[in-house]
Amino acid sequence: MRNMRLKALVISLLMAVSFAPASAQCGIKNTAFKSGEFLYYDLFFNWKFIWVKVGTASMSTVTSRYGGQQAYRASLITRSNNKLDKFFTLRDTLLSYCATDLSPLYFRKGAREGDRYYVDEIWYTYPQGNCHMKQHRIENDGRHVWKQSEYQDCVYDMMSIFLRARNFDVSKYKVGDNIPMPVSDAKRLSNSWLKYQGKETFKMEGNNVKYRCLVFSFIEREDGKNHELLRFYVTDDANHIPVRLDMFLSFGSAKAFLRGYKGVKNPVTSRLN
C-alpha cells in the first residue's frame, strides 16, 4: 500500500459535475509559480548500490478553466525507460485542477505500475465550509468503485499538496515542526503530515550546480507506525521549486533530480553557481 501511494508522487474520464465555489478556508495565496511553468526531472533507482537512471518526469502548470471558473491545471507525467521496464513498468499521468487560491477542485491519476492499471478520480465541493469528495476508482479488473466522503478539515491529493506546500511561509516554522496535511486517493484518507527538516545546500547530481534548499518530509502513519515516504528539497527562494525528491520504497529507494525548468515566476536566487 505504501508503494502504491508513493508512486503517485514520482506521479481521462470526462464527467459533468456542478459544484459550489471553493472554500476560502482551504485556500492559500500563490506567490511561488505562474501559468506556463514547466519542470523536468530525471528518475534514478538504487540498483545493487549503484544509482541507475530509470526514467523521466515532467510537470507543467497553466491557467485554465474548470466548472466555469478560472483555475490552475497542473499535470505530472512519469515514464520509465527500457532499463526499468524489464522489471517494473511505470507509466503515471496525474492531473489536478485547483482554484486560483489553490483549493483543490478535481484530481485524476491514471497509472500503469507493473502489470496493474488503475484510475483514481476525486471531485471536490465545499458545502457549508466542509470538504466533500466524490471518489471514483477503476480497478485493474475493470470494476468501478464509487464513494463519497465529507470532512470538516481540508483534504488534498498528491498533486494539490505540492502546489500548496510550495507556498508555505517557512519563516513561521522551526526545525521539527509538523504540518498536518491529510491526503486522499479514491479509496482512503491517510493520516499524514509534512515535517520541516530545515535548510541544506544541495549539489545537483551530474554537474556542479548548487542550490540552497528547504527540506520537508512527507510522513504517513499506518499500522501504528510512522513511515517517511518522501523527502523533498525545494529552492530557498520565492519559487520553492522542487529540485530533489528522495522516495523510500519497501524494496529500495529512488530519487528524482531537476534537469531543467522554464517559465518560473521569480528569480532563482537560491542557485549558487
TrEMBL record:
Alphabetical UniProt keywords: Signal
Signal peptide stretch: 1-24
Matches recorded under Pfam families: DUF3108
Name the UniProt record assigns to this protein: DUF3108 domain-containing protein
